Amino acid sequence: METGQGGSGPVARATYHYYAPGYETSSLYCADQFNKFLPVSSDHWLLQYPWTAYCNDDGLGPMSQDKCGKCLKVTNTATGQSVKTRVVDMCGQGGVDMDPLGFNAIDGDGQGKATGDMAVRLDWC
């Protein structure tokens, strides 16, 4: 996690989503991209960052297979805290749907967990 006024990208909404235990990829939008790497060890690049679903059509562009596996920096606009995440899925709410490991890492004031979402800035790593 990083702190400070990071992130210059578009403002979006972040929510959180519990991914399958062991980070199973079969039900993800990016499954076809990732299944060729299975099984993965704990130090594999796919597990380097917390996972996120991406759906920020109006910000960094629509979700597509070429975004699968990309690093996405997510910055909480209220706290300035940021975290790098791995795009593995698509969502439908106009922002990102983050694994709780990433969501909680930037929820320094606890408001995200209290309300279920937070305003964030998005930038490709």
From TrEMBL:
<keyword id="KW-1015">Disulfide bond</keyword>
<dbReference type="InterPro" id="IPR036908">
    <property type="entry name" value="RlpA-like_sf"/>
</dbReference>
<dbReference type="GO" id="GO:0050832">
    <property type="term" value="P:defense response to fungus"/>
</dbReference>
<dbReference type="GO" id="GO:0042742">
    <property type="term" value="P:defense response to bacterium"/>
</dbReference>
<protein>
    <recommendedName>
        <fullName>Barwin domain-containing protein</fullName>
    </recommendedName>
</protein>
<dbReference type="InterPro" id="IPR001153">
    <property type="entry name" value="Barwin_dom"/>
</dbReference>
<dbReference type="GO" id="GO:0004540">
    <property type="term" value="F:RNA nuclease activity"/>
</dbReference>
<dbReference type="InterPro" id="IPR044301">
    <property type="entry name" value="PR4"/>
</dbReference>
<feature type="domain" description="Barwin">
    <location>
        <begin position="7"/>
        <end position="125"/>
    </location>
</feature>
<dbReference type="Pfam" id="PF00967">
    <property type="entry name" value="Barwin"/>
</dbReference>
<dbReference type="InterPro" id="IPR018226">
    <property type="entry name" value="Barwin_CS"/>
</dbReference>
